[in-house]
Design goal:
Keywords: Signal. The protein is mainly β. It has eleven domains: 211 residues, no CATH class; 194 residues, no CATH class; 80 residues, no CATH class; 82 residues; 80 residues, no CATH class; 81 residues, no CATH class; 85 residues, Immunoglobulin-like; 80 residues, no CATH class; and more. It is 6% helix and 36% strand. The protein contains eleven helices and 64 strands. Strands 1-2-56-57-63-59-60-61 form an eight-stranded antiparallel sheet, with no helix packed on it. Strands 3, 5, 6, 7, 10 and 11 form a six-stranded mixed sheet that branches. A four-stranded mixed sheet has the order 13-17-16-15, covered by helices on one side.
């Protein structure tokens, strides 16, 4: 006999609950093994279970089911609509279709529910009135009293009893968390999913108040308990989600598991987001949802438990954590080691610089590098690995070892101190300091790595730039081999020169016969030397050379006598510091005795008169027709002088110019003192103009409109003004621009003046562009009156210039500023200007201060004046009430207040536009109409007129607050885009987005009603090139004032893809005609704009295979829905291709389930289930097992069986609460078109208490059916 493969498509069976389920279809295919299929008796689940996937039924025996996983949200199941319980599947399934289900084995866990705390409540005698049960149910229990006060009480007690009394009490704690970033710590708590608040001794009367809303006097004592959340006997909503931290540096994440025993387990993970060593206190926040149930402790048979409302606590504090940092050893990697010569690194350096963090007890240990270490091993640039040992200071036991890498660096500059006394170094023009010289400046020079000779010293100045006999206190820079530098300030250095110059003499005799001077010149003496003069500082040209005798005295050639004219002498060298070399012997030949000659003129020579300076050589050469000559001495070395008959030198200094001709002799004398004289004539004349130079900086003069420069002032513009004869005071200076024309200079400017200088002889010299800077530093002056000035009639708040001029006799005066440009200021004793508006009528003392254009101020001059005003303004007010527009902001304006007057108010001093207006109440306070609602009420007030002096007058007036202004606003110039829709119009918020600055004088923005002329559902999507629709919007305020805002810019787009639901399962027969694309959909496709007939439906099978080529089995299929705008959505599913139906057995189970909730039929009322065989083969039907899944605890005595209605064959599923666990045959269905029916029977037990049920029972049992093809 051929075995059959069974595929079952069925819904769940529900016991003890009203429900209507669709039919189940069974398909049996011929295979070699015995088939097994199962259905399930199960309780209806919340909607969250509908999205679970459903796997195919396993075809091998035995079948092992996975345990079910509960969602962390407990919801009360609904009973109005049938809900299909579906298992997980690899493909999405739709709740409208039957699902392929597999029986799931349920692993039950005995719930552990913490007991409610028992409270000792004093006995309270309660006197209850007679009960009218009919009115109680109809008039009382049907209503809840959800007043604002009651809801607030309900919410607050939920917060205190559960959030604070349960969650915070369990979660609050102190934890230790490592200080490094990303450090974590975990902990978990298990809390009950409920709390209880009770009425005790009259307290918490709100419990009965919120549950009972009776106007017939029902006693409050009925309802005394309020349960929050999900309790074992009072089921209700409980959620706990979105747990987070309130602190940026520490985050808290949590997972919540709702347990079967009415508890919740919360697993917390605390993560340090930012590294930190400080303690942190943070709040843990979360969203808590609690259903509330009111419970009566009196007459519970009438006052049954009532579900009040669901409370939602969003981002509430559910716990508080104190985070203490855990500081541990964290060694750096790599460790940076400062180079050093010793092998041992100090323990403090290792502890304090080699670790990123150390614990507080770190100083109780010492630290060293393990292994063999040597001197000089810590050289710069070295890298490697090492281990740091942390050892106990008391017993050297190693506490911890930290391996790491290291790199040796040298960042420490050399050390040393400046020598206290001045250090002397020989000057030297040819080199800089040596290192040995510079080390003399430093005491204690050393470095962490570099040896002494490798430390480079640099002085701030160069030796070759330092002159002898100078001292310096400057820095010396110390640099080691790694380039680390340290500067020592105020090192003391003295430069000396005690070294004599050097040079060698020639051995031959030097000829000095041509020397004309008594003492040979330096040039003459250089002939004795070999061109190798040298000195440590003095330049060769500055080395002094002397020809001396054996005693060191300088040789005078005039005093020498010798028969052969050959002499012995000694060369001595001397530098600029006076250092003399040793004497070196030389030989030389002596000088001549013949005087110079020349030809003199016969006419008198004219010399310029002078007050100083004798005749020069050039002056005297004018006596000769050509240059004088000598046998030895060059012409330019011949000395010339003018002598009288006695041989004395003639002077013409202070000889007045005249036409007198003077007689004299001109003398020529060579270097050997040989001389010749010639008679000559001369005159003293004056033809030279004065001389001088223009001063390179400007000269400052005080501005003055009343005079010109003096001669003394003009001489200040010229440096070294002089004349060859005229004295300085006799040189006349003439200026071409006058002081009284020169305005004060600003900034860095000056005036250019041309000056002409003339001496007594009329010789003139012009000095161009001398620099004169004119300034003004002189304060103005004035002649003040000795009387009191009356200003009582002034209308302005301050004094004008004309007012202040009344204090003076005449105009004020200044060295430069004109009277009209002198500023006059009247101030009080504190230097503040008077404000006439603030002055009462009396005599005042003030002080006048004058200021010119350059800001020069005079000293304060005391004056007296009369000022003040005590009369208030006047006006004529209207007799009718004045209407003001209602407003949310902006007080009454001046123009609005002027509506109270028939004409402008007046004042004796204050100008009309300066009179202050305000609206006052009877107490004098300002009246505000902001936020005063518009109405017909007439208000009384006083309108106040106040002048600038503070004098005021008030008049009684009446006013109303009205609203006759329409809203205002403008269109949003940007195009606003909306998604096309056929189902709705614009919302008010959307219409407001079309407008800018929508507002009203009274109505709030959100209360302004907007109405559009074109509804959104009538606007098709804009086509290409069509920018937008123009929509008119009418804005109406609460008073009915309306404005139309035209041509707002609305663009309609369609970007939403169409949607549709696939049939499930998609089963077709091999060889049938390819189904139309819409046959894959369960209903018509939908779209936000395109109508269903306009939505294109396309079908594609996996691997692009045609439907006719699909083999028997399962294949992927993609259905694409595309609307008119081109938006597309793909729906993926699986299509099943079956073989020809003649090879299958079809089993259909129409299921119409209805269960009772009363004592009828012992608590169990079953429908009739029918199984019909549409195949030719017989099928044996068996029940293999029954499993209790949930909510079966109270059915401890249940007996439940199933009966074949065709032959009355019975199989007990549950006997005395124990479930069937082996296979029992129910019956055999014969060939085609035969069937049999079965139904459930039994009892919930003789002792079952139907009256104690708070809610209907919803037990879940699963029953497995096996089908065996014959």
């Amino acid at each position: 006999m051929k075995a059959k493969k069974i595929r079952m498509i069925a819904t769940s069976f529900l016991l003890f609950q009203h429900a209507l389920l669709p039919s189940g279809v069974f398909a049996i295919e011929a295979i070699e093994n015995e088939p097994i299929a199962s259905t399930e008796i199960t309780e209806e689940q919340p909607e969250s279970h509908l999205s679970e996937e459903t796997p195919e039924v396993a075809i091998e025996e035995p079948t092992v089911e996975e345990p079910t996983v509960e969602e962390p949200t407990v919801e009360e199941p609904t009973v109005e609509e049938p809900i299909v319980q579906e298992e997980a599947s690899d493909e999405p399934s739709l709740s409208e279709q039957p699902a392929i289900v597999e029986e799931a084995q349920v692993i039950e866990e005995e719930p552990v529910v913490p007991e409610e705390p028992t409270k000792d409540i004093p006995a309270e005698e309660t006197v209850l009135p007679p009960l009218d049960e009919n009115s109680l149910v109809a008039n009382y229990l049907a209503r809840l009293n959800l007043t604002t006060e009651n809801v607030n009480q309900l919410t607050n007690y939920g917060r205190s009893s559960y959030l604070e009394g349960v969650l915070q009490k369990a979660i609050n704690r102190t934890i230790n968390l490592a200080s490094a970033a990303n450090s974590t710590a975990s902990f978990s708590v298990t809390v009950p999913t409920h709390s209880l608040v009770e009425r005790v001794n009259g307290n918490n009367g709100w419990i009965s108040s919120i549950v009972t809303d009776s106007d017939v006097g029902m006693p409050d004592e009925f309802y005394t308990q309020m349960y929050y959340g999900n309790h074992s006997t009072h089921r209700n909503t409980y959620t706990l989600t979105n747990i987070s931290s309130s602190h940026a540096a520490v985050s808290v994440a949590a997972t919540v598991t709702i347990n079967n025993n009415f508890t919740a387990t919360i697993n917390f993970t605390v993560t340090r987001v930012q590294a930190g060593n400080e303690a942190v206190t943070l709040d843990i926040r979360g969203n808590v949802g609690l259903g509330t149930t009111g419970v009566a402790t009196l007459y519970p048979e009438y006052a049954t438990p009532r579900k009040v409302m669901n409370l939602s606590y969003s981002s509430e504090t559910i716990g508080r954590l104190t985070i203490n940092p855990i500081v541990t050893y964290v060694i750096k990697n790599p460790v940076t080691i400062e180079a050093q010569r010793p092998a041992i690194v100090p323990t403090a350096i290792i502890r304090d610089t080699w670790f990123d963090s150390v614990p507080t007890y770190a100083r109780n240990y010492y630290y060293y590098v393990s292994g063999t270490i040597n001197n000089d091993m810590w050289y710069p640039g070295r890298t490697g690995s090492l281990t740091v040992n942390v050892a106990d200071s008391s017993n050297s036991i190693v506490y911890e070892r930290f391996p790491t890498n290291y790199v040796v660096v040298d960042t420490t500059p050399p050390e040393g101190t400046a020598v206290g006394d001045f250090v002397t170094v020989q000057a030297n023009r040819h080199r800089d300091f040596t290192q040995e010289e510079l080390r003399l400046l430093v005491n204690g020079l050393k470095d962490n790595w570099s040896e002494l000779e490798n430390i480079t010293l640099t002085f701030e100045k160069k030796l070759y730039n330092l002159s002898p006999s100078t001292s310096y206190q400057d820095w010396v820079k110390l640099t080691d081999e790694s380039g680390n530098e340290r500067s020592l300030l105020n090192t003391k250095l003295r430069i000396a020169d005690t070294i004599a110059p050097t040079g060698t003499v020639k051995s031959e005799t030097i000829d000095l016969s041509g020397v004309t001077t008594d003492i040979p010149s330096r040039t003459d003496l250089l002939a004795f030397l070999n061109n190798d003069l040298d000195d440590n500082w003095t330049l060769p040209e500055n080395i002094k050379i002397d020809l001396v005798d054996s005693n060191g005295s300088v040789i005078n050639l005039q005093d020498l006598e010798s028969e052969d004219n050959i002499y012995t002498g000694y060369i001595r060298l001397e530098d600029e510091q006076g250092n003399q070399s040793s004497l070196q012997e030389v030989k030389f030949q002596g000088r001549d005795a013949e005087g110079p000659t020349g030809n003199v003129t016969t006419s008198p020579v004219d010399f310029q008169a002078r007050r100083k300076d004798e005749l020069t050589r050039d002056d005297l050469l004018r006596f000769f027709t050509d240059d004088p000559l000598d046998n030895v001495t060059p012409t330019d070395q011949i000395d010339l002088s003018l002598r009288n008959n006695a041989g004395d030198v003639v002077s013409i200094v202070n000889v007045a110019p005249s036409t007198t001709v003077y007689d004299a002799k001109v003398r020529l004398q060579d270097q050997a003192n040989n001389k010749t004289e010639y008679p000559v004539n001369y005159r003293v004349v004056d033809t030279q103009a004065p001389t001088g130079s223009i001063k390179g900086t400007w000269t400052v003069f005080e501005a003055n409109r009343h005079r010109d420069f003096t001669q003394e002032e003009l001489r200040l513009l010229i440096n070294n003004l002089a004349d060859n004869w005229s004295e300085l005071e006799n040189i006349q200076l003439k200026n071409h621009r006058h002081l009284y024309d020169l305005y004060p200079n600003s900034g860095s400017t000056y005036h250019q003046l041309d000056l002409t200088a003339s001496d007594e002889s009329g010789n003139e010299h012009i000095f161009d562009n001398t620099m004169a800077r004119v300034v003004d530093t002189t304060a103005p002056t004035a002649n003040f009156k000795d009387e009191v000035i009356d200003f009582s009639t002034l209308t302005s708040n301050t004094f004008s210039r004309t007012d202040l001029l009344q204090f003076f006799n005449g105009d004020p005066d200044d060295n430069w500023s004109l009277p009209e440009n002198i500023t006059i200021e009247l101030v009080d004793s504190e230097g503040n200007e008077f404000e006439l508006d603030d002055l009462e009528y009396k005599e005042y003392t003030g002080f006048i201060r004058l200021e010119d254009e350059q800001g020069n101020q005079s000293v304060l001059q005391e004056v007296k004046f009369l000022a003040g005003d005590n009369e208030g303004p006047t006006g004529n007010v209207v007799t009718q009430p004045v209407d003001f527009q209602a407003r949310r902001k902006d007080e009454l304006t001046r123009d609005e207040l002027l509506q109270f007057f028939t004409e402008d108010p007046l004042d004796n001093t204050t100008a009309t536009d300066q009179i202050d207006l305000s609206l006052r109440n009877n107490t004098g306070e300002a009246v505000s109409i902001v936020n005063v609602a518009p109405s017909t009420t007439i208000y009384d007030a006083n309108v106040r007129l106040q002048d600038i002096r503070g004098n005021y007058t008030e008049y009684p007036v009446n006013y109303r607050v009205v609203d006759t202004q329409a809203p205002t606003g403008s269109i949003n110039q940007e195009i606003t885009i909306f998604e096309a829709t056929r189902t709705r119009d614009f919302t008010q918020e959307e219409l407001r987005s079309l407008l800018i600055d929508l507002e009203d004088n009274w109505t709030e923005r959100e209360s302004i009603t907007l109405k559009n002329n074109l509804p959104l559902h009538s606007l098709r999507p804009n086509s290409l090139g069509e920018w937008y629709f123009q929509v008119h919007v009418d804005a109406t305020d609460e008073a009915g004032n309306t404005i139309r805002i035209e041509n707002t810019k609305v663009r309609i787009e369609d970007t939403t893809a169409p949607d549709g639901t696939l049939k499930d399962p998609l089963v077709f027969t091999k060889g049938q005609t390819a189904p139309a694309p819409r046959e894959f959909l369960d209903g018509d496709p939908t779209d936000n704009w395109s109508l269903s007939p306009d939505i294109q439906v396309e079908v594609a099978y996996e691997n692009n295979v045609q439907f006719a080529d699909l083999a028997v089995g399962d294949h992927g299929v993609t259905i694409t829905l595309t609307d008119q705008a081109g938006n597309a959505r793909t729906l993926n599913s699986q299509v099943t291709i079956l073989e020809d139906t003649s090879e299958y057995i079809d089993v259909t189970i129409p299921v119409n389930v209805s269960f009772a909730e009363s004592k009828e039929s012992n608590g169990i009322v079953s429908p009739t289930y029918q199984i019909q065989n549409n195949a030719e083969r017989a099928v044996q039907v068996s029940v293999s097992s029954v499993v209790s899944q949930s909510d079966t605890e109270k059915l401890t005595e249940i007996d439940l069986g199933v009966k074949n209605n065709l032959n009355d064959n019975q199989v007990m599923l549950i006997s005395s609460g124990k479930n069937l666990n082996n296979r029992r045959e129910l019956g055999t269905i014969e060939g085609h078109s035969t069937s049999f029916s079965f139904s459930l029977f039994g009892t919930v037990g003789e002792n079952f208490d139907f009256e104690s049920l708070d809610d209907p029972l919803n037990p879940i049992y699963s029953m497995r059916l096996n089908f065996h093809a014959q």
